[in-house]
């Protein structure tokens, strides 16, 4: 439906146009532009047509997405099982009354505190109602490796208080298997991109930059074998995201033989609650893969994407993590290390003296630079008169 116009606006400066009866034109009192009524009517008609086209395309895309979601297969969790067989007799359940963690361990491993909150009261319970993991990624790095990695983590941290690395006390270090859901999926991706390529040349006294614009399309199919989502509410998501990636080629079929000396966290986030995140990770990875295939341009922006997923099986797996609790000046600090790759994450205290000292130094440098630039500008104006 055509837009009802009560006041035309100047295409150059968006100010209201005034009709001049003597000139029979629409005049802009702000920038001096002038247009015939026919020109403005044609311009607004073109805008209406573009808006209607964009609305129709958006509706078509929404309908296509709805059809696509109906056609996509659902995630398959039929392979998950609670059948532990004789292995269940070798295990016991531990419950932390402080944070609610439920931990699984073999009957030879002693546990006196919770690896998440440090609570020293852990209540033993009967082992029951737990899914049996499909896979386990065994620990490759030892407790000594974790301690050495923590010391190395302190290095080159400019704002870290000098006393922290020397005076903080390592309260406890534990190896824990963190529960993950691993999703299998296929994906068909069709993406469009707006790309540019620029080059410069000189014309007389001027440097001219020419920018070419391209509409690029890429499509393809790919398979995802292990799309991970953390299945523990106690494990901070930002920590686990930072500890990735794991090398899934080392996955082993689960066996209780990998548990002695370690704890295993029982999942408390069901696979149904992780499916949306798995979808998002699959789609984002597919689009990024298409984006990487667009080469030879200066800039590339994704303008459209259509990713169809062929969802497959869900597997339950345990991933190795070392948790290290330290204490300094009455405050607890939690660090975690990937038990396979050695990647370390954790929050560190900040020396306020170093922070504000650096800020003051940078402010001083900036002030000096601005002063020099200001003097230079004054001198230039003086000579140019």
Describe this structure as you would to a colleague.
There is one protein chain. It is built from six helices and 14 strands. With 385 residues, the chain is α+β, with helices and mostly antiparallel strands. The chain folds into two domains: 54 residues; 270 residues, no CATH class. Strands 4, 5, 6, 7, 8, 9, 10, 11, 12, 13 and 14 form an eleven-stranded mixed sheet that branches. A three-stranded antiparallel sheet has the order 1-2-3. Strand 13 and strand 14 form a beta hairpin. The chain is elongated and about 100 Å long.
Summarize this structure as a short list of keywords or feature phrases.
14 strands, 3-stranded antiparallel beta sheet, 34% strand, 385 residues, disordered C terminus
In brief:
The chain has 385 residues and is of the alpha+beta class. It is 29% helix and 34% strand.
């Amino acid at each position: 439906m055509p837009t009802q116009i009560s006041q035309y606006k100047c295409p150059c400066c968006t100010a209201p146009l005034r009709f001049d009866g003597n000139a029979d034109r629409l005049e802009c009192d702000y920038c001096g532009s002038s247009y015939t009524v026919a020109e403005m009517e044609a311009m607004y008609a073109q805008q209406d047509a573009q808006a209607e086209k964009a609305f129709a395309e958006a509706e078509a895309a929404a309908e296509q997405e709805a059809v696509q979601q109906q056609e996509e297969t659902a995630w398959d969790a039929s392979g998950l099982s609670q059948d532990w067989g004789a292995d269940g007799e070798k295990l016991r359940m531990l419950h932390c009354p402080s944070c609610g963690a439920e931990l699984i361990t073999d009957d030879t491993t002693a546990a006196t505190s919770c690896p998440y909150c440090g609570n020293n009261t852990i209540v033993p319970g009967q082992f029951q109602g737990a899914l049996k993991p499909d896979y386990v990624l065994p620990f490759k790095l030892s407790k000594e490796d974790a301690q050495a990695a923590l010391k190395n983590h302190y290095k080159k941290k400019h704002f870290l208080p000098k006393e922290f690395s020397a005076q903080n006390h390592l309260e406890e270090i534990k190896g824990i298997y963190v529960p993950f859901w691993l999703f299998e999926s296929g994906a068909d991706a069709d993406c469009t991109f707006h790309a540019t390529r620029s080059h410069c040349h000189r014309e007389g006294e001027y440097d001219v930059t020419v920018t070419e614009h391209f509409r690029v399309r890429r499509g393809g199919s790919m398979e995802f074998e292990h799309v991970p989502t953390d299945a523990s509410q106690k494990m901070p998501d930002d920590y686990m995201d930072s500890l990735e990636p794991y090398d899934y080629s080392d996955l082993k079929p689960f066996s209780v033989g990998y548990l002695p000396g370690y704890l295993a966290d029982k999942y408390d986030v069901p696979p149904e609650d992780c499916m949306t995140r798995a979808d998002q990770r699959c789609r984002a990875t597919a689009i990024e893969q298409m984006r990487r295939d667009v080469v030879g341009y200066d800039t590339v922006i994704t303008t459209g994407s259509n990713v169809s997923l062929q969802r497959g099986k869900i597997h339950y797996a345990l991933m190795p993590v070392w948790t290290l609790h330290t204490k300094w000046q009455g405050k607890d600090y939690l660090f975690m290390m990937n038990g396979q790759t050695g990647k370390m994450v954790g929050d560190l205290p900040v020396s306020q003296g170093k922070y504000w000292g650096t800020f003051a130094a940078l402010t001083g440098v900036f002030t000096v630079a601005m002063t020099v630039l200001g003097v230079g500008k004054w001198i230039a104006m003086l000579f140019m008169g």
